[in-house]
Structure formats: C-alpha cells, structure tokens
Design goal:
The chain is α+β, with helices and mostly antiparallel strands. The protein is built from 26 helices and 16 strands.
Length: 723
C-alpha cells in the first residue's frame, strides 16, 4: 500500500464534517421552527388571557352603569306625582301643576345623573308622552316597542345621529295599561373606558345587542359579517379567519341587560413577525455553522497531518498475520498495534493494564485471566486470592511502587500475581497465595516500609479480604475502593484492611449526644472535659465511621451550633469564627486528625468566652449584682436594676458590660440558670413548671429554651442524666 493510496483513502475522514454540518443545519431548523411556534402560542395565549380579564372588567363596569340607570328608573317612579299618574287613569293627575312638577322632577334627575341626557314617560292608555321639557300627545302606533325586557336597550335615529335609549316597560294594570319609561343615555359617559384598545387597525371594540345589532362601535369593513359572527358565537373567545387575516373574537354578555361587549383583535402581525424571527434564526445559525465548520476543517487538517505521516511510515512495516485487509491508514495502524500487543515485548504493560482493568471492573473472564497468566509467567495455583489498591502522590511514585510489588511477587515462593497501573496515581494488584491473611499483611507492611526508607515513596495501601471465587472479583474491588476512603479516618500513607465486611454505622446519635455534652461544658467553662469529649468522638469515628462527607457535616453542625449558642447567650468571638470560614476549614480537612484540630480550636474559643474569673467590681456594679441575686425570681427589667443603684439604664448598661462581660439581662439569665440547675438536682420532686415560676418566668417554654442553650438539653433530660 503506497503513500498515494493512503492519502486518497483519507477523504473518508473529511466527509464526516459535511454530514455533521448537514445534520446540524437540519437540527437548527427544527429547533427554530418549534421555538417560533411555541413562542407565538405563548404570546397569543398571554394576550388572550389579558384581553379576557380586561373584557370581564369592562363588562362588570357596564353592568354597574346599567344598574345605575335602573336605579334612576326607580327614582323616577318613586316620585309621588309620577307614581299616581302611572297607577291611575283619572284625569285629575293630568292637571298642569302636576305635569309641571313631573317635568321639573325629570329635569332634576337629568341634571343630577351624568349618564342620563333625557327622560320620556309614555302612557299608552292616555296617549301622552311627558319629557323633561314638555307634554305631548301621541298615537299608539307612534311607539314601536317589541319584546321589552328587564333592561332593554335600543338605538333611535335622530337628527344628530344615533341615540342610545334604555326602555323600561311597566304594567300597573296587567293587560289593560302599559307605561314606558325611556331614558336617553349619554353615550360618551356610558361607554367611557368600556372599549378595549385605542380602536387602531389591530383592535376593534363593539357594544351591541344580543340580536346582533351594533349600538356603538366601528363601522366599515370590520363590521361586515363580524356582528353576525359575534351574535352566533357560543364561546367567550374564538378564532376566526377572514380575507387572509387571523382574528380573535371576544364576547362577554351583560348579566342584567341585553347588551354585549365584543372585541375583534387582528393577530396576523404576530404570526408574520414570528416567521421573520424564525428565518433570521435559521440564517444566522447557518452562517455561524458555516464559519465554524471552515475553522474546524482547517484545524482538522493540521491535527490530521501527524496521523497521515504515521500511516506513511507504518506502510513499510511488515505484519505477519494481518487480521484485516488494509484499505487505509486506520486499518494499517490497527493491524500494527495488534501485532505489537500479541508478539512484541514492549506491548506487555498496556496488555496487563487493560486486562486487569477489565477483570476488576467488568465481569470476570476466565479466558482473559488465563491469557494474562501466560503473559506474566504466573501459575497462580495457590488457595487464596487478595486484591490490593495503592494510592500514590505522583506517577513516578506509582511506577516505583508497581516495580517493588512485582519484584516481591517474583521473589516470594508462596505468592503469585501481577500488578498494573490503573491511573497516574493508582495501581491494582491481584495476589495469589497460600499464606494466611495475617502473614500476608505482614509482608505487605514490610514492603511498604522498605519503599518509604529506601526510595521515599509514600503510599496508601488498601487490602481486600482473602477470597477464593474469582467470579466475585468485581465486587471485591468495589468493596476495596470503598474501604480506601477510610484514609480520612486512618490518616494518609497507611495500610488499610478489614477482616470482615464494614458494619453499618450512623453518626446521628453520637453527634447529638456529643453536642449536648459540649454545650454544657462550654457554658460551665470546663475546658478539659470539652476537649476530652471531642477526642473521644474522634477516636470512635476512626474505628467505625465510613461516610466522609457526613462526618464532616456532623463536625460542622457541632461547631456551628456551639458558636450560635455562644453568640445568642451574649458571647463575643473573633470575626474569623463565622459560618462561611468554618465551613471552608472543616470541609477542606484532609483527614480526621486535621478535622479534630480545626474543631478543637473552635471549641476552645467558645469555652474561653465563658471562662470569666471572679474579680472585684465597682460599688455600683456590686450593688446591681446584689440586687439581681436577691430579686432574680421577679420579672426584672433593665430599668428596675438601674433604679436600684440610682443610675440611668444606659450608663449602667455600659459599665456593667465593661466589668462583667455580660449585659444586665444576660446576667439575670445567668443567675437564673445557676439557680435552675441547683433546683433540678437538689429537689427532684419539683416540676419544670414550678421551677420556671420560682425563677420568675411566666412562660415555661422560654425557660426550657434558655436552659437548653446553657446546658445542651431540656431540664428533664438533664435531671434524668444526672440521676
């Protein structure tokens, strides 16, 4: 296979870029289409929801105005003269003075109601019509009113245009007498703020009757056919297409009249703009992809040159048994490496590494294991198998450790196996031996010490339990890795092993118990006891605990709660003891010993805050302390204590804090807690409620809360533990 043939076959490599570009463009087009459709629907749904809520508000405002007009009708009828005129047919109620009073009443109603322009009372039996201006005689056929309802609106043609009338039909004598109260409505006042939008070319609003007659609204091309569409519309919102326009029709019927609010919105522009955005996204994406493809193509040519040169050099090598027909440099390199792995000695480390990795991380393969034994010239026919995982600080240390353990295998008669590097810092050994487990561990410990003394190689070794069934090698390896995490509890560069499976262990009980003890020792100023408690926790965790992060979290909670408790009780700690700093220090600890040092430093700071030695105070402070000790069982305040020493509360607070380290209220709580401890221990028959009352607490829960802050547990738990 010559160089020209290799170069020509390399075109397959570049064709992949064209396929990737095409797939990417198609994917971008699909994504942009879906996004544009979804965004259009989202915007449209938001607009519909907004317009529906707006239309509902307008409908409520319209109904309220209709009710005002109904009240006006009742106000008109409630007049004595109007009522008598309606209810009787006698001619006495048609006298000029009575009619004049009725006309004046109509005028007053019109002047006092901005919605009413005029009033007209039509008595069909008498054939008269009374307005706010005059009385006229009419014929019955002059008033054409059909199907009157509760509140019936109609439009009347006048010289000045259309007039909106509200007609109320009354039948004082059913079947014999009919009277109409007709209110001429001020359209501008009635329809003020009732129409949605600004009547532009995208939004049109209508006020119409249920029969489809437009009372107020836009005329022209929008009105043609839309009134009929709104009349027949059953839902409140429907889509409608007309003349290539996409319209949204909104309809909301009045609940107290025959009026209907309708709105037509043209959202054609929305779909048009969405299409423009989609096309722009596709265009820009294609341009970006094209530019990126050119750049990637150029870099691929640059990085592919070494591979081409390698293929050209390997073309002259002879391969004894070619597993594949050589078509291009990829197959040629594959064949050469196959030859190197099977027949060449320098390919052995990679074979061992890959085989060991598959044996311990995948299902056990007997054929692979036998092949590995042949390559390493190991019989491995002893009884027991042991796995070992070694962590090193660097790749050089890992290579040194790998050679040392392999030499140990080759030199010891009762040990067989092989060692392979898994990562730069980790190696795995599979040992086969007839030695018992303890003797084998002794040899590993000796080998580890020799490496540390001779070459200075520091390692952390984790040894599995001995086993016979090779099928379980994957599980044994996983268990060994979990055990390796115990470096946190044992310390780095140790030999870790287990003779039995790790027992389940939880830190919650120990954390709570220890925290209560530490809180008590801190508030009592017992430094030695607090440190001993912390050391006991560390020792116990080093033997049993397995969860590193949870252990860190437990220490963080203990330290954080201690600091919060000290601060709540009036203590003062350095600024460095804040939650953020503590979190960083605890979770950066590399092992349990470092974690204990950090926690001990925090603990000592808290204890020493409460280790206040007795000292002489000024006469005023001495007198204030004596007053508190004598009256701690009362509901004391700062003013009470200040009054006892004839000082202002502000001045007493300053000198008391400077000399004692407590505020006045903190010292009252301190004295009460000391007395509470005495009562709990010396008088077992006393209930918590009685103790709280003797100490001056009106609320038992407040007493329990303060006691728990001081001593780390409730009064009953404290008494039970001391007993």
């Amino acid at each position: 296979m010559d160089r020209k043939q290799l170069t020509s076959k390399s075109a397959v490599f570049y064709k992949l870029y064209i396929v990737n570009i095409i797939i990417t463009v198609i994917f971008i087009c699909m994504i942009s289409t879906v996004c544009s459709v979804y965004s259009t629907r989202l915007i449209l749904n938001s607009m519909v929801t907004f317009n529906e809520s707006m239309l509902e508000e307008k409908r409520q405002a319209m109904d309220e105005r209709v009710r005002q007009l109904d009240e006006t009708v009742y106000l008109i009828i409630g007049d004595k003269n109007v009522f008598n005129l309606i209810m009787t047919s006698e001619s006495d109620y048609e006298r000029p003075m009575i009619l004049l009073n009725i006309i004046r009443h109509f005028q007053n109603v019109c002047s006092n109601n901005s919605l009413v322009e005029g009033i007209r009372l039509v008595d069909m039996q008498r054939g008269i019509s009374i307005t706010e201006k005059a009385k006229t005689t009419i014929r019955k056929d002059e008033v054409n009113i059909e199907f009157p309802q509760n509140s019936f609106f109609t439009v009347r043609e006048t010289d000045n245009g259309k007039s909106l009338d509200l007609i109320r039909c009354l039948e004082p004598i059913q079947g014999q007498k009919t009277v109409y109260i007709i209110l001429t409505v001020d359209q501008s006042a009635f329809t003020s703020n009732l129409m949605i939008g600004n009547e532009d070319e995208m939004v049109k609003s209508y006020l119409m009757t249920e029969e489809g007659r437009i009372l107020i609204g836009s005329d022209g091309e929008w009105s043609d056919g839309l009134a009929e569409q709104l009349k027949n519309q059953r839902a409140e919102t429907e889509k409608f297409e007309r003349d290539g326009r996409k319209l949204m029709l909104y309809k909301n019927c009045s609940q107290v009249s025959n009026l209907v609010l309708g709105t037509v919105q043209d959202y054609t522009y929305l779909t048009r703009e969405a299409g423009e955005v989609k096309r722009m996204i596709i265009l820009v994406s294609c341009l970006v992809i094209a530019a990126a493809s050119v750049i990637i193509y150029g870099f691929s040519l640059y990085f592919y040159r070494p591979l081409k040169r390698l293929g050209s050099k390997l073309a002259g090598m002879t391969v004894k048994n070619e597993p594949n027909i050589v078509k291009d440099e990829y197959m040629l390199i594959e064949n050469v490496f196959h030859e190197m792995q099977t027949d060449k000695e320098y390919g052995l480390p990679s074979i061992v590494r890959d085989s060991v990795r598959k044996l311990v991380t995948e299902e056990f393969d007997e054929e692979r294991f036998e092949h590995l034994k042949r390559l390493m010239h190991q019989k491995m026919d002893y009884t027991w198998f042991v796995l070992m995982v070694v962590e090193c600080d660097s790749e050089e240390d890992r290579l040194s450790a790998q050679n040392a353990y392999q030499n140990m295998i080759n030199s010891e008669a009762l040990i067989g196996g092989f060692v392979a590097g898994m990562t730069q810092n980790r190696l795995v050994g599979i040992f086969n031996t007839d030695l018992d487990y303890e003797n084998f561990l002794g040899m590993l410990e000796q080998q580890k010490q020799e490496m540390e003394e001779c070459s200075g190689v520091l390692t952390t070794c984790c040894v599995s339990r001995s086993f016979q069934n090779l099928e379980n090698m994957c599980l044994i390896y996983s268990e060994t890795l979990r055990t390796l995490e115990k470096t946190f509890f044992k310390g780095k560069y140790t030999l870790i092993y287990e003779t039995a499976p790790a027992a389940d262990y939880k830190n919650e009980y120990h954390k709570k118990e220890t925290e209560n003890k530490l809180n008590r020792f801190v508030t009592e100023g017992k430094e030695e006891e607090a440190v001993e408690t912390l050391h006991a926790l560390t020792s116990e965790l080093s033997l049993k605990a397995t969860d590193i992060q949870y252990t860190r979290f437990c220490y963080f909670q203990i330290c954080s709660n201690l600091i919060n408790n000290v601060l709540e009780l009036g203590g003062v700690l350095p600024k460095e003891y804040n939650e953020r700093e503590i979190f960083g220090k605890i979770f950066s600890a590399g092992n349990l010993q470092e974690l204990e040092k950090v926690s001990e430093k925090i603990l000592l700071a808290c204890v020493r805050n409460f280790s206040r030695k007795e000292q002489s105070y000024s006469p005023n402070v001495e007198q204030a302390i004596a007053f508190i000790v004598s009256n701690y069982n009362k509901d004391l305040s700062l003013d009470d204590v200040a009054g006892s020493v004839f000082l202002s509360s502000g001045y007493l607070s300053i000198i008391f804090k400077e000399e004692t380290g407590y505020t006045v209220l903190e010292y009252i709580t301190y004295i009460r807690m000391q007395k509470a401890k005495e009562l709990i221990l010396q008088v077992p028959a006393l209930k918590v409620k009685d103790i709280a009352e003797q100490l001056g607490y009106n609320n038992v829960q407040s007493f329990i809360r303060y006691f728990k802050k001081y001593y780390g547990e409730t009064p009953m738990a404290f008494r039970k533990k001391e007993e």
